[in-house]
Amino acid sequence: MTGPTLATRLDGLPAPATIEMARRARELKAEGHDIISLALGEPDFATPAAAVEAAHQAALAGKTKYPPVDGTPELKAAVARKFSRENGLDFAQDELLVCNGGKQVIFNAFMATINPGDEVVVPAPYWVSYPLIARMFGGVPVHPVCDETDGFSLRPERLAAVMTARTKWLVLNFPNNPTGGICSEEDMKGIAEVLRDYPDVWILSDEIYEHLVFDGNRFTSFAAIAPDLRDRVLTMNGVAKAYAMTGWRVGYAGGPKRLIAAMRAVQSNATSGVCTVAQAAAAAALDGPPDLIREMVTTYERRRDLMVSGLREIPGVTCAKPAGAFYVYPGITGLIGRKTPGGRVLDTDTAFCMALLEEAHVATVPGSAFGLAPYVRLSCATADTVLDEALKRIARFIASLV
Ligand SMILES: Cc1ncc(COP(=O)(O)O)c(C=O)c1O
C-alpha cells in the first residue's frame, strides 16, 4: 500500500472476532431477520434517577468548565468513601484517579509502565482489551489458563508456572468477563504468595463486576487480602456495570501514589479530566442506596440459573455455573466437527457462532476471542423471555446438527 504509513505499534493487532460477528448480525437484521443478540456486555437496566438528576443539577450550576485531571474533589471523595466502605481500602486523595471508563485506567497504567518486551500475565479466558492494550506498548501477553473444571478460577500453581524475570504486570479480573468465574479467597492468598517472590511486578485488580456475585458468595478485594502488596496493587473499578452507566464513561482506580501520578501524567496529555456532569452523576451513584444493585443481582442470578439449566440439557454442551457477572461460558467440545443441515462444518467455536447466527439467528461471541476455545460467551443482560427464546433456538440448532 502507498501513502503515509501507520505506526508499527499497531502491527499485528488483530481485529476482534466480535467485529465480524456484529457486522453479519447487522446485515441479517437489515434483511429483516429477527436476530437475538447475546453478544453485548451491557446491563439492560436504566441509570439510577438520582445519578441523572445530579448530572442535570451540575450542568445547571455551571459545573461545565475543565475539571481537574485526576477527578473532581466531590467524586474523588465519593470514591474514597466507596473503597473504604465496600472494600476496606483507605486511599488518600493522591492515591486516586478518575478516568474515562475503566478502560482508560488500564490504558494509562500500561502506557505509564510497560517497556517493549515486558511480559503482562493475563489469565485466559480474558477480556480482550488487556492483551490488546499491552501490545500497543510493546508488552508481551502471557496467558495461564483458568479451567472450566476449576470454575474458571486462577490456580496459584498455574500462575507460578508463567512468572519470569520479565513479568511486569499480573491482571486479575474476578468476577470474570467472559466466564463469570470468581477466585476463592484461598486461591487469592496462593496468588499473593506467588507474587511475594516477584517484588517488581505490578498487579491490576479489575473489580468492575464486584457487586455481581451469587449464591451468597462474598467479594473481597485483592488489596485487602494481601495488604503487604498494596504498594504495587492498582485496584480499578467503575460505574458502568454496577450502576448501568456504560455510556457515562467513568472509571476510577486506587493505588500507590507513584503509579497514580504517572497515570495522571498520561491522562493529562490524552483526555484531561473526565466530563464534569458525568462525574457528578457517578458521585451520586456511588453515594446512592444499594437497592438498585440488589435488584440487579437477583435478576442476573435468576437469568444465570435459567441459562445454565437450559444449556446443560443440550447434548454436547457443558456449562460451569458462573458465580458472578452476567455471562455464561458453555463449552462446545462435543459439537466440534459436526455439520449443519446447510453443510457447514463446525471445526471451531468461531464457525459454530457464525452458523448459529446465520442459521438460528442468535448472536454470541466465540471463546477463541477471549483466549480459551472451544467455548461460547452468552450475555445474560437481557429479558428472561428473550433468553428463553434464545435457548430454544440454540437447542433446535444443535439438535439439527449431523
Ligand atoms: C472486565 C472489564 N473491565 C473493564 C471494562 C471497561 O469498562 P468501562 O466501560 O468502564 O470502560 C469492561 C467492559 O466491558 C470489562 O468487561
Structure description:
- The chain is an alpha/beta fold and 402 residues long.
- Helices cover 40% and strands 11% of the residues.
- The chain contains 13 helices and twelve strands.
- It has helices at 17-30, 49-60, 73-87, 101-113, 129-136, 156-160, 185-196, 222-225, 257-270, 276-287, 291-312, 349-360, 384-399; strands at 36-37, 96-99, 119-121, 140-142, 167-172, 202-206, 233-238, 251-254, 327-328, 362-363, 365-366, 376-379.
- A seven-stranded mixed β-sheet has the order 2-8-7-6-5-3-4, sandwiched between helices. The chain has a three-stranded antiparallel β-sheet with strand order 9-12-11.
- 50% of the residues are buried.
- The model has no long low-confidence stretch (mean pLDDT 95).
- Residues 41, 101-103, 127, 173, 177, 206, 208, 238, 240, 246, 251 line the site of pyridoxal-5'-phosphate.
Write a concise keyword list for the protein shown above.
2 domains; Aspartate Aminotransferase, domain 2; Aspartate Aminotransferase, domain 1; 40% helix; 402 residues; globular; alpha/beta; binds pyridoxal-5'-phosphate; seven-stranded mixed sheet
Brief summary of the model shown:
With 402 residues, this protein is α/β, with parallel strands linked by helices. The chain contains 13 helices and 12 strands. The strands form 3 sheets. It has a 7-stranded mixed β-sheet with strand order 2-8-7-6-5-3-4, sandwiched between helices.
End-to-end Cα distance, whole Å, is: 44 Å
CATH architecture of the largest domain: 3-Layer(aba) Sandwich
Count structural domains.
Answer: 2
Q: What's the helix-strand series?
A: HEHHEHEHEHEHEHEEHHHEHEEEH
Number of strands: 12
What class, by secondary structure content? alpha/beta
Which small-molecule ligands are present, each listed once?
pyridoxal-5'-phosphate
**Low-confidence parts lasting 5 or more residues at pLDDT below 50?**
none
The radius of gyration computed from the alpha-carbon positions, rounded to a whole number of angstroms, is 21 Å
Chain-averaged pLDDT: 95
- Provide the spatial order of strands within the biggest beta sheet: 2-8-7-6-5-3-4
| Percentage beta strand | 5-15%
Shape: globular
User: Within the CATH hierarchy, at the fold level, what is the topology of the largest domain?
Assistant: Aspartate Aminotransferase, domain 2
CATH secondary-structure class of the largest domain: Alpha Beta
